Amino acid sequence: MAGASVDAFPPEVREAAKAAIVDTTGVIVAGASEPVTRIVAAAVADEGARPVADRLGARLRTSMEGAALVNGVSGHALDYDDVNQSAIGHPSVVIFPAALAVAQGVGASGAALLEAYVVGVEVMTKLGRAMGGAHYRTGWHATSTLGTLGAAMAAGKLLGLDAGRLQHALAIAASEASGSRQNFGTMTKPFHPGHAARCGVFAARLAQKGMTGDTTILEAPLGFFALFSFGQATIDGVRDALGNPYDVASPGMNVKRYPCCYATHRAADGVLGLVEQHGPAVKEIESVDVIVPSGGLGPVFHDRPQTGLEGKFSLQYVVSAAILDGRVTLDTFTDEMVQRPEAQALLRAVRPIEDPSIPVAFNAIEEGHVVVRIRPRSGVVLERRIEHPRGSPQNPLSHEELLDKFRDCARALGREQVERAIALLERVESLRSVDELVSSLVLAGAATAGG
Questions:
Q1: pLDDT (mean) for 409-433
Q2: Whether residue 287 sits in one domain with residue 425
Q3: d(CA 296, CA 360)
Q4: Is residue 418 part of a domain?
Q5: Of 17, 100, 287, 314, which residue is the least packed, with the fewest Cβ within 10 Å?
Q6: What is the pTM of this model?
Q7: Bridge partner residues of 54 (DSSP)
Q8: C-alpha 449: how far from its chain's center?
Q9: For position 132, what pLDDT does the model report?
């Protein structure tokens, strides 16, 4: 992957990568004012650093590692960033912040940024496919563990590491990989991708300076696969699978319509479809069954949420909010909205059910189907089956819908700056320097690492 180039990418790969970068950039800007982002940014600013890279959507110029950390946290703070079937996680929110920070640090072009993003996503997702499902089921957050390795590859490419040094960067990153799913529904969950991005950048920089690691780190008896997949993973075929096809285009990225765990999206689509079709009748509820594939409830374990963060990982709350409000938006996930009595009452009538008869080969969050069955207090049972949510590769958002999401996410920048950012993102591969893009994504008068 060290020699991958924009010119060699198939057109569909370039376009898919650019669309993913648009989406990820927007959610990074949207998350800039979130409490967890402000906390992490303040800690980074306190450290001080050589100011070479920027925090998006705010005012902070800091180190490559610091910018990767803060932007990664910001991009996941709202849980509004894309997901991928192979990774069972969120590739872009790790890989793009790492690549952007290094691209700024070395003065790279937009084409180089795009290349590094594709390479990082490809390594992360193909390793995710090789790992199998045990890694996620056991409790590891694949976004963070696998993302650290992918970020190291993206950063290493921008730093010009040869194949040998990239192997050492991967080995270093493997010893940095971490992240527990027990922290879902807390501020530490969005910390995971930022931490992974920072660690990947640092691993690549250490390898550049001559630090070494075990170059058999993936397949060795005490290596990454053995430690994280409990014997399920295999190195066989990984090398041949790289770029064949590129995961960013096939199976592709799932763009989120709702700022909450992707495991709730098919149910939300089903409920909102029934609300649109049947109107007020849906609001008088006796019970709601949400039937998902076996394993599909893994990430959504907050059955009685009390905070907005917990609500993002509660199938019961997302379904209840969709019924009560007829929409699921950023405003859905405030503490006040989750705690309102009508939502707390209704979510107790929602029953999530895992059905082992629904066929799933690898990823229960995206494969198979979800059935929503609403029993009104009067009238017939209402039912809808959803296989592919809006925003998935099989049911994609239009280009204009994607840009509308970006405009909504980035509105704090002001309309003129948002439109300038869109114009630059749409031709990112032609930019001589990524600084031109970044300047459209930070608040005027960007500060140094001290503030």
A1: 97
A2: no
A3: 10
A4: yes
A5: 287
A6: 0.94
A7: 61
A8: 26
A9: 86
